[in-house]
Amino acid sequence: xxxxxxxxFYFGNNSNNKExxxxxxxxxxxxxxxxxxxxxxRCNLCGLFSFYIVSLGCIHNYLLKGFIPIIDIxxxxxxxxxxxxxxxxxxxxxxxxxxxxxxxxxxxxxxNITYINCGDCKPRPDFQSMLYNKPRKYFWHNFAYKYxxxxxxxxxxxxxxxxxxxxxxxxxxxxxxxxxxxxxxRPKGHPIPPNITDIIHDxxxxxxxxxxxxxxxxxxxxxIRDKFINHFxxxxxxxxxxxxxxxxxxxxxxxNINKNIKGNVKFNKIYLINIIILSKCLDIVTARCSATAGIxxxxxxxxxxxxxxxxxx
Length: 313
Hints:
Largest sheet: 5 strands, parallel
Strand order of the largest sheet: 6-5-4-7-8
Structural class: alpha/beta
Strand content: 5-15%
CATH class of the largest domain: Alpha Beta
Number of helices: 12
Low-confidence stretches: 1-22
Shape: globular
Order of helices and strands: HHEHEHEHHHEHHEHEHEHE
Radius of gyration: 20 Å
CATH architecture of the largest domain: 3-Layer(aba) Sandwich
Helix content: 40-55%
Mean pLDDT: 83
């Protein structure tokens, strides 16, 4: 009930209503008499879509409290900024801030600023709740579109890649497979990923039934990638990458330990584009993780889904 009430509060009974009471109040004056909240999630090893789903929850909470939320990932070390503090808020290379304010403009001009360490804001777009609750899923879909849209240049890149890979075909199965540190480190509280053998088995059954034109496959793990391509051959489509993650299973490092800021930004841009493309596929095969929550938020819905929920470590 609270989600439906919040949905109507933001969008009205008609989801096409682009203006809200909050919007009108916030737009009256650019900075005067406005309350800003700088949201910092001080999690140094969290990935992009972990930041994404928690930030959506924090934006939701603080809009309801009358604040204009601003996401800040530059002021503390994290996996996106290469574990260093930079002048650039790299979040704004991926997403727009609510109402068009940038972190720099708020720090320069605003008088009323509150800082919070946003650890685990709820409600947020949790994968399991969205899977079984369509109103909640579409609430977060519209909320993200309105208050944290992806940068238009990344949307355009994704659409161009979709055309290059698939032309006008819509009969596409999207597959996301997580490996590397999820397998080697078995991080406590994180979802257990499926074995690639099980993924191949289930994708084969779906392909026999629906005869997909192509399978769009996304993974950060070279071993998983090679096994999948060896089985499905030329039917598999991927984004061509000029670089790969040379993950060393013997060292068992975290995937996000890279301290090269340019490499981190490049990796996360391609990662985000992969998730956009997966969200536009006709059917989806994936497992419980933050990226899957992102796929559900961005998607308009899938015809068929195979979702692995194998518990957590």
